[in-house]
Design goal:
The longest helix is centred in the C-terminal third of the chain and has 32 residues. This protein has 12 helices and 2 strands. Helices cover 75% and strands 2% of the residues. It folds into 2 domains: 124 residues; 93 residues. It is an all-alpha fold. The chain is flat, with a radius of gyration of 19 Å.
């Protein structure tokens, strides 16, 4: 895969959030247990990503060999994720301090989870969707058990991880079946030829596995039974 500076410009909100997450890890390495500095870096990174989103809004240009499309749809959800992340970071300080878990890793995980969300919203390829989904999920697994002193929080993280890893197998198998029938993982190409593939049983099975996997991730019935156990025990800011 080849890319140029224009591709990086269209993906600048994702790049800004990712760099902010890396910066938080560096700050933590330099100044141990300084959550205040990490919080400031996180807020600055989210604001920078928001500015980049506004500047690239409406571009609707494919990048990275047609696997990434940052435009009106991607920009809208990027702004939604950034706003949610900004509010989460703002309200987390006092709450985490009361629980004595106000640590820099929390902010880094929030940023990397948002990066995964942005990647999913702007993806035009099943492989990129998978990468974004797993980046987000891995961060959320850890955040669900961030309050390590609480047994129920640890239980929630373990349940979320085991069920999430189980469903990931179905997601990958669905992608493999779709690729096996169509010869591509590009959503634009698959959508343009959907009528030709819709009579193929293997293709329909692959689409069904994808639908089931995504339904689990968003807790849509009847794949929602895990949600109460995972949403209640973690820190409230994580659930929010």
């Amino acid at each position: 895969m080849t890319f140029n500076s224009l591709d990086l410009w269209y993906a600048s909100p994702l790049v800004a959030v990712t760099l902010a997450g890396i910066a938080v890890l560096i700050v933590e390495g330099i100044r141990r247990n300084n959550a205040a500095a990490s919080r400031i870096v996180s807020l600055a990174g989210l604001l920078t990503a928001g500015v980049c989103t506004v500047l690239t809004y409406g571009s609707n240009q494919p990048g990275f060999n047609g696997t990434f499309l940052h435009g009106t749809y991607g920009s809208f959800f990027t702004m939604l994720f950034l706003a949610a992340g900004f509010l989460t970071v703002v309200v987390s300080r006092q709450y985490l301090s009361r629980l004595a878990i106000n640590r820099s890793e929390y902010y880094a995980l929030i940023l990397f989870a948002i990066a995964g969300m942005i990647l999913m919203a702007s993806a035009v390829d099943l492989v990129i969707i998978f990468l974004g989904l797993e980046l987000m999920s891995l961060c959320l697994y850890i955040l669900a058990g961030f309050d390590r002193a609480r047994g129920r929080s640890n239980e929630a993280a373990l349940k979320y991880f085991l069920l999430g890893a189980f469903v990931t197998g179905f997601l990958l198998y669905g992608i493999a079946l779709v690729y096996g029938v169509t010869g591509t993982t590009n959503l634009v190409t698959i959508g343009a030829n959907f009528s030709a593939y819709s009579s193929n049983g293997m293709f329909l099975l692959g689409v069904g596995l994808l639908a089931m996997s995504f339904s689990f991730k968003v807790a849509a019935a009847p794949f929602h039974m895990w949600a109460p156990d995972v949403y209640q025990p973690p820190p409230t800011t994580v659930t929010a």
